Amino acid sequence: MYDVSEIRRDFPILSREVNGKPLVYLDNGASAQKPQVVIDAVTRGYAEEYANVHRGLHFLSNLATEKYEAVRGTVARFLGARDEEEVVFTSGTTEGINLVAYSWAMPRLEPGDEIILSVMEHHANVVPWHFLRERQGVVIKWVDVDATGALDPQQVIDAIGPKTKLIAITHLSNVLGTVVDVKTICAAARQRGVAVLIDGSQSAVHMPVNVEEIGCDFYAITGHKLYGPSGSGAIWIRKERMDEMRPFMGGGDMIREVHKDSVTYADPPMKFEAGTPGIVQQIGLGVALDYLMDLGMENIAAHEASVAAYAKARMEGLNWLQVQGHAPGKAAIFSFTLEGAAHAHDISTILDKKGVAVRAGHHCAGPLMDHLGVSATCRASFGLYNTEQEVDALIDALELAHELFA
């Protein structure tokens, strides 16, 4: 049984008040709160078990290394990957995408080669490709969403041409909540010899993910959205792509031997993990993923779908609320504005006075804001611990904002 009241007790911060009101935390799309088991793991990691990993021969180093490396297998299980050696630890999705841009794309793409993006992409999946556009003459091809915010996979497939080398696409929009049919896109891309990178920052939090079934080449996740520590994350890289990649950063841990006139690199994944890593952060990520898998991603998805349906019904009763994105099967993410001149920042400030935490701004999605014709929106993004009562609190706060700005 999925007992949300019991689950909420796992998250200490949810019992606090903000501005004299019970905290209603609806900013999960930016960063999720942490369960006590993750907090305990991080505290224990620093207070009782800390040492640098790899190469150390003493007890604490061996313990830290064992716990740190065990997370690689945890990530592989979470993503449905067959081989944990295809998991590279990163500080988050941003580093993972930049790793692919510098290690795989930069040495392979020539002027005129194309990268396909959707208009929904987060800046982390836009700016690295602009680097290649500026520095190497790579062409970025954009695919739009329809009026509901849905992305037709056939449009992405139709955009593939003889010069297309990579499709870099989100699995779930952080603004619209749109779920993308990445499996269909990957199947067509593979037939044409085109690599596919998937930004899984949002999707991996809300639904089961199996990279083998999806058929992608790269799949990036970020720990702080997965109820784990900030500064943690990973990217799954298909082995044949990994073999095509040069090192991203140089330093300790990613080498086998260094001499005055030569260097030999370690085998992947260590080849891509230079320097002292986020040891405790990654251990905390492993605990967070175990927590999610114990709850069951199918159960989490079902709970969030129920809350999303309730939120959608409540919002549809507010004719002065403009919600962006109505794609079928969208996740529990709602971006909205109020009629009139109220700015998203002003709206979020009023909501905060009622203890309701939402995000306001462009959500690191400038191309999508341009496409929608808005400069900013408020965003309520729900997680595994949110409830229908919190939806009601959001609606009450929105009604207050409407009264003040009408």
From TrEMBL:
Cofactor(s) named in the record: pyridoxal 5'-phosphate
UniProt-listed InterPro entries: Aminotrans_V_dom (IPR000192), Aminotrans_V_PyrdxlP_BS (IPR020578), Cys_dSase_SufS (IPR010970), PyrdxlP-dep_Trfase (IPR015424), PyrdxlP-dep_Trfase_major (IPR015421), PyrdxlP-dep_Trfase_small (IPR015422)
Group of enzyme by EC: transferase
Keywords, comma-separated and alphabetical: Pyridoxal phosphate, Transferase
Protein name: Cysteine desulfurase
Classification of source organism: Bacteria, Pseudomonadati, Pseudomonadota, Alphaproteobacteria, Rhodobacterales
One Gene Ontology term of the molecular function aspect: cysteine desulfurase activity
Domain Aminotransferase class V, chain residue ranges per copy: 24-394
Species name: Salipiger abyssi
